[in-house]
Each structure stands twice: as structure tokens, then as C-alpha cells.
Amino acid sequence: QVQLVESGGGLVQPGGSLRLSCVVSGSIFSLFAMGWYRQGPGKERELVATITTTITSGGNTNYADSVKGRFTISRANAKNSVYLQMNSLKPEDTAVYYCNTRERSWPWGQGTQVTVSS
Questions:
Q1: DSSP-based three-state secondary structure for 91
Q2: Where are the beta strands (DSSP E) in 26-90?
């Protein structure tokens, strides 16, 4: 069974940075395009960043307009891990952040809470 474990969230002031990590177990991680999602209070879960496989697609990245230029997604296949570097954080980035495949193929993990507030 696939398990996703997100970590790295916390409380940060506006303009600050955080680096989120997600470790995947139970699947051949390197074969899947991955994504980071977030769900803010009272909002739908949204996709914020994706990264293709490095084996067949060169690890191409894509970002929602709201985070473009501030967030960077990366992956380490040897560690079954995907990361989200978040810079210049804004209060509207406050949400629970999740990882999954780009197609939302796997059961969701518990997520990691990011709170941006002064």
C-alpha cells in the first residue's frame, strides 16, 4: 500500500521561507509525475506545482500562477522524495499542503500545515 508522509510545515512570517518534504513508500516513485497540492480554510484542494518523471520527461516543472516565481518543486528519486521550496510566503499561502501524483492516484497523506502570519 502506498503511503505519503509530508513534513516541513510551520508558522512563518510574511516574506519568509519553508521547505516541505514528502516521502513516498510502497510504489515505484520514479515512474510517476508528482504534484504538491494545498487546501486553505474553506477552500477546495488545489494543485500548486508539478514535476514530471526524470527518467522519461526530464523533470519538467509547472506552477500555478499564484505561486510562480516563489515556489520550486524538485524530486530525489533515490530518496523516494519530492520537495517544495517556498519563498516570499504570503498570508494567502496558509493551507495544509499535500503531495500526490499529478493524477491524484494515491491515498492522501496527513498533509503538513503551513501558516503565514505576523
A1: helix
A2: 34-39, 46-51, 61-63, 71-76, 81-86
What count of other Cβ atoms lies within 10 Å of the Cβ of residue 116?
Answer: 20
What are the residues whose beta carbons fall under 8 Å from the beta carbon of 109, sequence distance 6 or more? 3, 4, 5, 6, 22, 98, 99
Distance CA 33, CA 72 (A): 15
> For residue range 21-58, what is the model confidence (pLDDT) as tens digits?
999 998 888 899 999 999 999 999 999 999 998 777 77
| In the chain, % of residues over pLDDT 70 | 100
| Contact status, residue 94 vs residue 116, Cβ threshold 8 Å | yes
The answer to whether 96 touches 83, Cβ cutoff 8 Å, is no
C-alpha cell at 85: 521550496
Residue 110's identity, in one-letter code, is Q
Sign of the alpha-carbon dihedral angle for 49, 60, 83, 118: negative
